[in-house]
Design a protein that fits this description.
Layout (H helix, E strand, L loop, with lengths): L2 H11 L5 E5 L3 H10 L6 H12 L7 E6 L1 H4 L9 H7 L3 E5 L4 E3 L7 E3 L5 H10 L4 E8 L8 H20 L3 E8 L7 H21 L8 E2 L16 H15 L6 E4 L6 H12 L7 E6 L1 H11 L6 H18 L6 H7 L1
Parallel strand pairs: 1-2, 1-10, 2-3, 3-6, 6-7, 7-8, 8-9, 9-10
Antiparallel strand pairs: 4-5
């Protein structure tokens, strides 16, 4: 393990004013997104859509791109590898390596992420293809009687083993324990579960001998569940989320790149900005957004070549807004003016 190299890549991923584009949707997820805009989810269409993002000036605010297995092997229309387009923009290619969540035995309604079998060999291949970081997502749902201790430990243990295999191959692990915002729980319950999950995750990272200086954390924010009917102010979300992180995340971690978790584009941006305005922190705070960066360009594109420029403008805007939020310099009126 080359810790100096891992630390260099991790710091580059959370560089001031830049963040990670999560473009690692599986074919199934991509189909859902494309169905919503009336586009057939073919390999060629998926390639064309991602190519327009990677050739966009919006990449100026993107430090890294999480790719799916299909995408890391694809070439643009002119024969250039998509990985090369990302590198030419100054961003770092990354790869999603988990195999998705499956029902957790003996724990009704709960899931565990799979994909450890054969991971070492896949990481070796992905590094040869250009990946310098990876992502593994654990999914923790909140509901009556869940999450269980069993579920939290099982997912945290898998995250630890994944991270160890990544660092062995000089690949920076993005550690993503996501407490879902889909339920009817309030903000206090989100905080309570998120604290349990993060503390157990770092316990497992310690057990698996992870060098914290060579990783990036990708957590959820502290928000009320979508079905709760409750709303929290931007300031409340920022304050509670920072309290959580200060209580759970060691300062050795170079940076925290938040997932958007179903928040609207502007909500995700506003929450990140508010956190970065709340004073000095031991880690860089930035974004690792998928839908919150891509919903607007996807809608603008709608599968038509004549819409590529409009889609790129939408991506440039969202990337710029989040880049400003990562510096604590975003303002809501910038959204109004763009509209």
């Amino acid at each position: 393990m080359d810790l100096a190299e891992l630390n260099k890549v991790a710091n580059a991923m959370v560089a001031p004013g830049r963040g990670v584009l999560a473009a690692d949707e599986s074919a199934g997820t991509c189909k859902k997104r494309f169905d919503a805009i009336g586009v057939e989810s073919t390999e060629e269409n998926r390639r064309d859509y991602r190519e327009l993002l990677f050739r966009s000036k919006g990449m100026a605010n993107i430090s890294g791109v999480i790719l799916f297995d299909e995408t890391i092997r694809q070439k643009a229309k002119d024969g250039t590898a998509l990985v090369a387009l990302i590198q030419q923009s100054g961003a770092i290619p990354g790869i999603k390596v988990d195999k998705g969540s499956k029902p957790l035995a003996a724990c009704p309604g709960e899931q565990v992420t799979e994909g450890l079998d054969g991971l070492r060999e896949r990481l070796i291949e992905y590094r040869e293809l250009g990946a310098r970081f990876a992502k593994w997502r654990a999914v923790i749902d909140i509901g009556p009687g869940i999450p269980s201790h069993t579920c939290i430990v099982a997912n945290a243990h898998a995250l630890g083993r994944y991270a160890a295999l990544c660092q062995e191959q000089d690949i920076v692990p993005i550690v993503e324990p996501e407490v879902l915002m889909d339920g009817a729980h309030d903000m206090d319950r989100c905080y309570q579960v998120s604290e349990f999950v993060l503390k157990e995750t770092f316990e497992q990272l310690y057990e698996q001998r992870i060098a914290l200086e060579g990783m990036v954390l990708k957590p959820n924010m502290v928000v009320p569940g979508k079905k709760s009917g409750q709303r929290a102010s931007v300031e409340e979300v920022a304050e509670r989320t920072l309290k959580l992180l200060k209580n759970c995340v060691p300062p050795a971690v170079p940076g925290i790149a938040f997932l958007s978790g179903g928040q609207s584009d502007e909500e995700a941006t506003a929450h990140l900005d508010a956190m970065n305005r709340l004073g000095e922190l031991p880690w860089h705070l930035t974004f690792s957004y998928g839908r919150a960066l891509q919903a607007a360009p996807q809608k603008a594109w709608s599968g038509k070549s004549e819409n590529v420029a409009a889609a790129q403008r939408a991506f440039i805007h969202r990337a710029r807004m989040n880049g400003l939020a990562a510096l604590g310099q975003w303002k809501a009126d910038l959204e109004r003016r763009a509209a």
